[in-house]
Amino acid sequence: MERKPVTRLLIADDHRLLADACKSLLEPEFQVVDIVTDGRSLVKAAWLLKPDIIILDITMPRLNGLDAGEQIKQKLPAVKLVYLTMNAAADVAAEAFRRGASGYVLKHSAAEELVIAIRKVVQGDSYLSPLIARETVTFLLNQGKSRTEEKHITKRQSEILQLLAEGMSMKEVASVLELKPGTVAFHKYRMMEALGVKSNAELLQYAIKRQMTSS
Prior knowledge:
Blueprint lengths: L7 E5 L3 H11 L4 E6 L2 H11 L3 E4 L8 H11 L4 E6 L4 H9 L2 E6 L4 H12 L4 E2 L5 H10 L3 H5 L3 H11 L4 H8 L3 H15 L4 H10 L6
Parallel strand pairs: 1-2, 1-3, 3-4, 4-5, 5-6
């Protein structure tokens, strides 16, 4: 009898101890191919390793989980995304599913819930933590607008905003994104204009509200 191939997992979380604990929990049943600790490393690892399922957090340095997940789904549509996060907000869960998630699990749930979620996703189903009201998430999904669209900033501007919010200079942001510093400055100006903010502090507050940075 031919054995079924083992499901290959990639874990992304900036808390290494938690990521290692997830690996120990999951490895009896699944194969963990790598652990990464920031969103940009996740995108690169996903492209290189092509896992079956990615377990990722929402709040990660250098590129948040929502933006990273969306980029991965555009390049590798067959990859399944299971978010493992502290964020129990229904609008964030809805945004995750809108951007291609198959599962959404809360970190303070029982450990077995993550295993159940992955099994469901392997079978082609979706999973939402019962601690989040499914009706609310469904309602928000049916609204049809993403949080980025509501605020009228582009995906590139979202990337720039996160890096700026993490304390990088415009020159450092330009280096990470392989842009000219003047291009970064232009995007920052257009963002502030679109969001109606007047200062760097207001930009930072907006980034924090959108789960771009935990600081």
